[in-house]
Amino acid sequence: MCPLAKLPVVQHTIGMKETTPTTKDNAVRAARIIIDRYLSHHDEKAYTYRPFVKGGIYRRADYRYRADMQTLLPEAPLGTFTYLWATKEATAESTLRFALIPYGPVKIFVNGTLCARSDIFCERWRSKVIFDLPLQEGTNDIVLECENTSGGFGGEFGTWVGKLDYYFLTPDGAMEGVWYSAPINEELDTVDRSSLAGLSWHNATPPRSSDRFDLGEIFPDAPSGAKAVVVTSVTVDSKTTCLVEANAPLFIDGEAVTSRMDLGRGTHIVMSHSEIATPLQVRITDEERGEVLALANPVLPAESPYRILVAGPFASTSAAFPLQYTKPFQCTDGLGFWRLEGKDTYLRMYNDNELFGHWNYPLGVTLYGLVEMERLFKSIDATVSERIHALLLSHMQQSIDTYAYALWDKEAFGGATAVHHLMTSLDSLDDCGSFGATVLEVAADHDLEGYERLVGVVGQYISEQQPRLPDGTFYRTGLMHEFHENTLWVDDLYMSVPFLIRWAAHTGDDRHLADAIAQIDGFFNLLYMEDQQLMSHVYDFERDIATGIPWGRGNGWALFSLSELLSVMDEHHRDRQRMVERFCQLSEGFLRLQDADGMFHQVLDMPSSYQESSCTAMFAAACSRGIRGGWFEENGVYEEAVARAIDGLLTHAIDREGRVLGVCRGSEFSCSRHYYAEQLLARIDDTHGIGIILLALREYLLLR
């Protein structure tokens, strides 16, 4: 249990605020406990590797699975049925938002129960219909029954919105993908594991047991004389002498082997340099026991039928070939990555760690908060600072190092990646701006290698490719997420301005700073509600209206982004006074809506909506900067408001275990305030709030 749980607390609250120490002391303690929890739960974790067969039913560029069964089963008679079978893991009882675009009649079964079906209208127009499928904790069977009709057979299915990186595993759990059955004449009476097991399935993993490997099947078009690097492993229980038989040069743990070698207890890496045209044969026998040692893939589970990794083709090979599994390598036919036994079978990388190695905008804010806390704790507790430093460096470096693989994955497998799914499908500021800004912030005092390429892509996208209105203001169009089409969101001030000001400093090009200023003006022109001194959440160009809802975090994004800009603007900059005025106007609009607990609400002018922590933190962080920067004509009222906001966060938003409470999840938008108040409910430990609360505590402590 965290030490703070042992301290006296105010019993009528869920917060960690103590009854005696100062707010400053409590702020330090709150920061420490949030950091400790985050580092303990989200430290460095390994990537997941799975086999992947390119073919059949797999995710395409829109991140949905395409199952055109008339192409996959051209022999299927009209009126017959096929079943598509996949599994989805769930950590708890929940629902899965699932989109279906049917080509013909489709029924959807989850764990044997009919949960949804297409109708004649979506079948006629092949239009998308969305279902919330019930999931139980653990493994869930998701089965689609497809009827072959003259109008179509099969469909597209999966994520309800483009770029949402969820995927299915095959029924045996071995790899990503979907099995499909041979056609049958009649529907199954029941659709469960027992009845499904009686069907004949395509794409099932083939059994493999031979010690002979056909490299020509893997590289059917390799030129004469081409070579491959083959990697496998063996494990021995105790030190032993092994007999080695191979028809190609063999190395064990980097040492060349002839016919006999002593192996110590443990797992040993076996590498061969082989001619592709000649099937490779490898046999390693425990001489003392007379047992042939099983060959096992070095990165896949021990039970995997795929025993080898193969790289190639190469004109020549070297014993020093690097055994790394995060970057593609140059082959004679271009960039390549590790292959597995069989035709069109690959090793594929996945990031199943929710908060490590990922790249998204709320994580960008979270890590920004940790950056500033690392700096703050250097003078408070060097151990905490060093722990943060290690996590930041590892998370960022992994994100940088896997980018080249992700681009290769997109090109090789049809567009939907399971690593860097945003940066490989870049079509919005959400995808890149927040995290890109944090990469530049981390690079300022961490030794990151190769980050320039990644932030260069971000800089080029934001400056040259992101859609703009005629006056240069960013807006949303041409996205995979159709709901956002032709809109402008106040959120995008944070998705652009913090990056642009850092990009200006990084490149030495003041045009990017001017662009940041222009974005503030453009967004205020369309979203600022002068009578309330607040920002509307979204402008909808389809209806030519601002939605008129002063969403709390949306206004927080605007205020905090202004504080980011003003923090770097020269005092004599010609546009500075206008930016200060906008900051003060928005701060005043916020201020009048602070409640008795020091908190702000999900909809700022709707007291019946819940107290929301991230917008409260954004106010506290931005206004702390405003006080220190001298941007207010009168500091006193804001000093009091910031102190009350911090007090409210300590009391209501941070519990004794370091959990962050009352943070609105990621939003869509609506013209109804009840959507925000009643459907966008608060979550615990949501990354939309962790980082900004840390930033608020840091800025408050700098005031003290």
Note down, in words, how this protein is organized:
There is one protein chain. With 704 residues, the protein is of the alpha+beta class. The chain has 3 domains: 3-41 and 355-703, Glycosyltransferase (Alpha/alpha barrel), CATH 1.50.10; 48-202, Jelly Rolls (Sandwich); 212-341, no CATH class. Helix content is 33%, strand content 22%. The protein contains 18 helices and 33 strands. The strands form 10 sheets. It has a 6-stranded antiparallel sheet, with no helix packed on it. Strands 12, 14, 17, 19 and 20 form a 5-stranded antiparallel sheet that branches. Helix 6 runs parallel beside helix 18 (687-703). The longest helix is centred in the middle third of the chain and has 20 residues, at 382-401. It is globular and about 85 Å long. The protein starts with 22 loop residues before the first helix and ends with a helix.
Average pLDDT across residues? Answer: 94
In CATH, the architecture of the largest domain is Alpha/alpha barrel
Stretches where pLDDT is under 50 for at least 5 consecutive residues are 1-14
Number of strands: 33
CATH topology of the largest domain: Glycosyltransferase
Largest sheet at a glance?
6 strands, antiparallel
Strand order of the largest sheet: 6-5-8-3-10-11
Report, as a whole number of angstroms, the end-to-end distance: 30 Å
